[in-house]
Design goal:
mainly alpha; rod-shaped
């Protein structure tokens, strides 16, 4: 995902460099940088979105397991005789 973001930034740098040299009147000059930015953003999103979904899923499972373990530990501690 970070390589996709890097490609987006590089593509936008190329667009702004093209604007600096030839102005905004010629869209063909800008198209190369925009194309590069979009081509690198798409794979980054295709990797990043499922990764975030998986992270969220496993993080929630871990948190639920921690809560269950804490509840079990409390139940065990409460069932022990007090001296």
């Amino acid at each position: 995902p970070l390589l996709g973001l890097l490609g987006t930034v590089i593509g936008m740098i190329k667009v702004f460099a093209a604007i600096t040299t030839s102005g905004v009147g010629n869209p063909q000059v800008l198209a190369g940088g925009i194309h590069e930015a979009l081509i690198t953003t798409a794979p980054g999103l295709c990797i990043g979105i499922p990764a975030m979904i998986a992270y969220s899923y496993f993080n929630n499972r871990l948190n639920n397991q921690l809560v269950e373990n804490a509840q079990r530990a409390n139940a065990i501690c409460e069932s022990l005789p007090r001296s």
